[in-house]
From TrEMBL, chain A:
Keywords: 2Fe-2S, Iron, Iron-sulfur, Metal-binding, Oxidoreductase. Residues 2-78 form the 2Fe-2S ferredoxin-type domain. InterPro entries: 2Fe-2S-bd (IPR002888), 2Fe-2S-bd_dom_sf (IPR036884), 2Fe-2S_ferredoxin-like_sf (IPR036010), 2Fe-2S_ferredoxin-type (IPR001041), Beta-grasp_dom_sf (IPR012675), Diverse_Oxidoreductases (IPR051452). This is (2Fe-2S)-binding protein. It comes from Neoroseomonas marina. The keyword Iron-sulfur applies. GO terms for molecular function: 2 iron, 2 sulfur cluster binding; metal ion binding; oxidoreductase activity. PANTHER family: OXIDOREDUCTASE WITH IRON-SULFUR SUBUNIT.
UniProtKB/TrEMBL annotation, chain B:
This is Xanthine dehydrogenase family protein molybdopterin-binding subunit. It comes from Neoroseomonas oryzicola. The keyword 4Fe-4S does not apply. Residues 24-144 form the Aldehyde oxidase/xanthine dehydrogenase a/b hammerhead domain. InterPro entries: Ald_Oxase/Xan_DH_a/b, Ald_Oxase/Xan_DH_a/b_sf, Ald_Oxase/xanthine_DH-like, AldOxase/xan_DH_MoCoBD1, AldOxase/xan_DH_MoCoBD2, AldOxase/xan_DH_Mopterin-bd_sf. Coiled coil: none annotated. Keywords: Molybdenum, Oxidoreductase. It comes from the Bacteria.
Length: 167, 796
């Protein structure tokens, strides 16, 4: 069986996998990083999004062997060691951008990549279109869009902390 | 100087406690659990809508790598495994019971829908189980299928079940037909409308999963499952299917990734993994892939209705007559029979004073996936029917659509209001929610916006829906008399620990609703314990004494009420302890937010003083009071609750493509007292997104042979962020009069009120094209056809 070596959330792992093993299976089944979810089998829902070398990727459509030598970040690797949440995580909480939490890891990982790719800032429409690859059945997306806009201000240094949501 | 703690009680938008784990990937969903020695199950499913099983050959599959067992329906039959039970019995017009054909866990002699489970392969890895499942040889004799309700009801149609002649499950009615017919005979105007309520596939983001375990030493079974009501699963599966006493069966519904009704029911896979775990004495896990979800999760809606409204010369409603066909699918899912009857026809008065109503419902078996409750369950179907009928009646009487509604509203001073279809509404103010929504949406300014859009080449329309629904399900004696085979109370336990922190045990289950925050706020408000010191325990039959789960927007109205009742008991006991400690009469003890006080004095004891005394009873009225500070209460509601309100949708249609874009949506809902405004707003927004999905995007499609064409997320159009627009959500409160919190429920209002508002807006946008009505979803191809067909007609 092929062997893959990859770094996940700063830790290096080596594992034997089948050729057909998906990255998400390696993460969930072998490394027991169950924060990354599988919500569909046609690469539509985005619950499985992780970062490979800083870019958002659907780990359900990536073979584990393709991640050989890569640097992978999952939802478990976002918060600082002292427990401080990433600005995107903080914004999702402040704006009530999650309900059941199942799409949330993929949504957060996609949103971070979206914001990073747009240092000039994002309009509401750009955020909505940027979430094309992520499905949420609970929230209607409205609060997710608001959370991403609020996190973008912090990630781009325009504010020092997440703006409070209107009461 | 003390800094005042932020207010966390009723009415505060407390940020959610559960978010910390979900945002860091630490949620614990069923598929996240893994056990030592765990095996994986893969289900062999029928590729045919209807076929006789002539034989199942498991020999090749059994020899494949890693395979531990392959089981069929015959294996389960040898163990006397029972069928999946139905929880509600409806009676026909003539008083006879509905047809209730057996629902085997694994099909034995026939398969009845694409996806019907036939066998299970169990292996060391998921892929090995899947490979083995593909190697199971099933010899099918394919039979003609009854796919649409029309086809199933025709003479000579293929029979889904031998025990249900003509594919009829029941032929039920409500109301006095002769009285209603008389009202129609005297009417100045009769408006008729045929409607389809499109079939939907719920698609909670977490696919269903189940993990069965068996301990051969103790004989104990444990099932982790993606359920909205673990105690009900324990009851149904233990008593009816696997014959395991409740004391030997623990059911856990851990974090669950959305339900929307689809995770209420007892499904075959739960029994399969539990039974297999017992046979093999090893843990067995099954997780659906999304394709399986499409063909095995219960679907929703699927009504075809003919409806007639009688009006007098002033536009006052005289009577309503409705005839509905409701699809049950191939088998009766757990609560399916009650959805098109007691959750639908009883809502046909809506917010109007229609004096007499008659509704008959034929429930039909077809070779499709079972249909059951999906967000709103029966009430969206009733609301869509009424609110489309309002607009057609307005068109045909020439009365303004808002005025027609107002003219027929139940007056604000008429509560309690007895409808002609069994329900008695306790409170509401339909004029107030309407006025607030008209103002918030700038209804009066719409024509200017329509004219502006026309300059840009867009067709703009506005639509309204004034609705109510019934939730807080339900008074046990009432539903029992209507055919429910269970009580629908809820259970709450309040455990005050010695040093003052609190654990709440509830039979309600949270799968996105934020119970771990809202319920804490009830404790903060009533007992004065900070939210951070309150923990909510739910979803585990080994921890929570009993419960009926979460559906029908019942968690606060019924579950929250049980907690309030248990807290009343805590306070009553606390007062007796406080009276002893302060040497006062118990009648002189007052309690407010954590402080017991001797009335009119400055003598006080904090809750923590009382809890310490209760658990360390050195100075305690031990002769008259047991130690400890824990109370359990069962709350059985006196009535349903009746949330309602007004939804206004504004759309723009691109005539070149037929695409409908949402441009504004305004909702003003009366959900009773609001505990956490942030969470209520989120629930309503999510419900509206599903309602817009039904109106514009989603529909389940079978071909004539019963193949599921909309069987993946590539084929079934789930709403995405760019399909939706910002939603303005507000509340207007009238209190529920019969539960201690005054709450009504907010989980379903969005999905109930919004679809007719959207379709009314689309029809309004197309008013120049002679469109009288339109079935959901209003897809671009449908709209483009109307516009271009209309142009052709105009040209002719």
């Amino acid at each position: 069986m092929p062997q893959v070596t990859l770094t996940v959330n700063g830790q290096t792992h080596t594992a034997e996998v089948e050729g057909r093993t998906l990255l998400v299976e390696l993460l969930r089944e072998t490394l027991r990083l169950t924060g990354t979810h599988v919500g569909c089998d046609t690469s539509q829902c985005g619950a499985c999004v992780v970062h490979i070398n800083g870019e958002s990727v659907k780990s359900c459509t990536t073979l584990a062997v393709m991640a050989n030598g890569a640097n992978v970040t999952t939802i478990e690797g976002l918060a600082k060691a002292d427990g401080t949440l990433h600005a995107m995580q903080e914004a999702f909480r402040e704006y009530h951008a999650l309900q059941c939490g199942f799409c949330t890891p993929g949504m957060v990982m996609s949103a971070i990549d979206l914001v990073q790719k747009h240092p000039e800032g994002l309009t509401e429409q750009q955020i909505r279109e940027g979430l094309e690859g992520n499905l949420c059945r609970c929230t209607g997306y409205h609060n997710i869009v608001k959370a991403i806009a609020a996190a973008a201000e912090v990630m781009h240094g325009k504010r020092s902390e997440i703006a409070r949501a209107a009461e | 100087m003390n800094v005042a703690a932020p207010f966390e009680g009723i009415g505060a938008s407390v940020r959610r406690k559960e978010d910390f784990r979900f945002l860091q990937g630490r949620g614990a969903y069923t598929d996240d659990f893994n056990r030592q020695g765990q095996l994986y199950a893969w289900i062999v499913r029928s590729p045919h809508a209807h076929a006789r099983i002539k034989g199942v050959d498991t020999s090749a599959a059994s020899r494949m790598p890693g395979v531990v067992a392959v089981f069929t329906g015959a294996d389960m039959a040898k163990d006397n495994v029972g069928g999946l039970p139905c929880g509600w019995q409806i009676h026909n017009k003539d008083g006879s019971p509905m047809a209730e054909p057996p629902h085997p866990v694994l099909a034995v002699d026939k398969v009845r829908h694409v996806g019907d489970p036939v066998a299970v392969a169990i292996a060391a890895t998921r892929q090995q189980a899947r490979d083995a499942a593909e190697a199971v040889g099933v010899d099918y004799e394919v039979l003609p299928a009854a796919v649409s309700m029309d086809a199933a009801l025709k003479a000579g149609a293929p029979q889904v079940h031998d025990g249900a002649p003509g594919n009829l499950c029941y032929d039920w009615h409500i109301g006095d037909k002769a009285v209603v017919d008389a009202a129609f005979a005297s009417a100045a105007k009769v408006v008729k409308l045929d409607l389809v309520n499109n079939r939907l596939i719920p698609n909670a983001m977490e696919p269903r999963a189940a993990l069965g375990e068996f301990d051969p030493t103790t004989g104990d079974y444990t099932l982790h499952t993606t359920s909205q009501n673990p105690h009900v699963i324990r009851l149904l599966m233990g008593a009816n299917v696997l014959h395991i006493p409740e004391s030997k069966l623990r059911v856990v519904a851990p974090d669950v990734g959305g339900g929307f009704g689809s995770k209420i029911y007892h499904y075959a896979e739960e029994a399969i993994v539990t039974w297999s775990a017992g046979k093999l004495a090893r843990p067995v896990k099954w997780t659906a892939d999304r394709t399986e979800s499409f063909m095995s999760d219960a679907h929703g809606r699927d009504h075809v209705s003919h409806t007639e409204l009688a009006l007098d010369a002033d536009g006052k409603f005289l009577g309503l007559r409705v005839s509905t066909l409701a699809n049950m699918g191939a088998y009766l899912s757990t609560f399916a029979p009650c959805v098109p009857t007691y959750l639908y026809a009883t809502l046909l008065a809506g917010v109007y004073t229609t004096p007499v109503i008659y509704c008959e419902v034929k429930a039909v078996f077809t070779n499709t996936v079972p249909v059951d409750a999906y967000r709103g369950a029966g009430r969206p179907e009733a609301t869509f029917l009424l609110e489309r009928l309002m607009d057609v009646a307005a068109l045909e009487t020439g009365i303004d659509r808002v005025e027609l509604r107002r003219r027929n509203f139940i007056p604000t001073d008429a509560f309690p209001y007895q409808t002609p279809v069994a329900l008695q509404y306790d409170s509401g103010n339909y004029h107030a929610t309407l006025d607030q929504a008209l103002k918030a949406s700038d209804w009066a300014g719409f024509e200017a916006r329509r004219a502006e859009a026309a300059k840009r080449g867009k067709l703009r329309g506005i639509g309204i829906s004034t609705y109510l629904e019934a939730c807080g399900i339900a008074p046990s004696a009432v539903v029992g008399s209507l055919g429910a085979r269970a009580g629908l109370y809820e259970v709450g336990t309040i455990r005050v620990h010695p040093t003052g922190s609190v654990t709440v045990l509830t039979g309600a289950h949270s799968h996105g609703q934020g119970h771990e925050t809202t319920f804490c706020q009830l404790v903060a408000d009533k007992l004065g314990v900070p939210v951070a010191q309150v923990d909510i325990v739910h979803g585990d039959t080994a921890k929570v004494p009993f419960g009926m789960g979460t559906y029908g927007s019942r968690s606060l109205a019924v579950g929250g009420s049980a907690m309030m009742k248990a807290m009343d008991k805590i306070i009553a006991k606390g007062k007796r302890i406080a009276a002893h400690l302060m040497e006062a009469d118990v009648d002189d003890i007052e309690f407010e937010r954590g402080i017991f006080r001797v009335a009119g004095t400055d003598k006080t004891k904090a809750l923590v003083d009382i809890s310490v005394a209760a658990y360390v009873p050195h100075n305690y009225p031990i002769e008259e009071l047991e130690p400890g500070l824990e109370e359990t209460a069962f709350y059985d509601p006196k009535n349903f609750t009746y949330p309602g309100g007004c939804h206004i949708a504004e759309v723009e249609i691109c005539p070149e493509t037929g695409k409908v874009s949402m441009v504004n949506f305004t909702a003003v809902d009366d959900v009773g007292r609001v505990i956490n405004p942030m969470i209520v707003e989120g629930q309503v927004q999510g419900g509206i997104a599903q309602g817009i999905g039904q109106a514009l995007l989603e529909t389940c499609v079978y071909d004539a042979d019963g193949q599921l064409l909309s069987g993946s997320m590539m084929d079934y159009t789930m709403p995405r962020a760019d399909d939706l627009a910002p939603v303005s959500v507000a509340t207007h409160t009238t209190l529920c009069t019969h539960n201690p919190l005054g709450v009504k429920g907010c989980g379903e209002v969005g999905a109930i009120g919004s679809p007719p508002a959207v379709i009314n807006a689309v029809v309004d946008a197309l008013r120049d094209y002679g469109v009288r009505t339109l079935d959901m979803p209003a897809t671009p191809s449908k709209i483009w056809g109307i516009i271009n067909g209309g142009r052709r007609m105009a040209a002719e």
